[in-house]
Amino acid sequence: MANTLTNAHFRTRLQVLDAQLKQLERYGRDKLRAAAVERLHEEREVVNLVLLNRRVEGARAVVDFARWRNANGAMALVANENNETKTAALAG
What we know:
By secondary structure, the chain is mainly alpha-helical. It has four helices and no strands.
């Protein structure tokens, strides 16, 4: 991954997700919103997992930067989720 994402990027992403969740939950529940809220909660969990894995790896006496950078595999989840979102957007 040539463009390494920083912890600050993920913290900002959490703030954006929280704002989106609050906005959707403010308007009540229907099937469409429920699906969107569920997707946002899942994305939030993945971002939290990335930050947690980076924290754990960074706390080690000897840090493996490859494991820290990809959050011990959690970055693959983010990449997969981003690809699915782009594919869904293209499908219409």
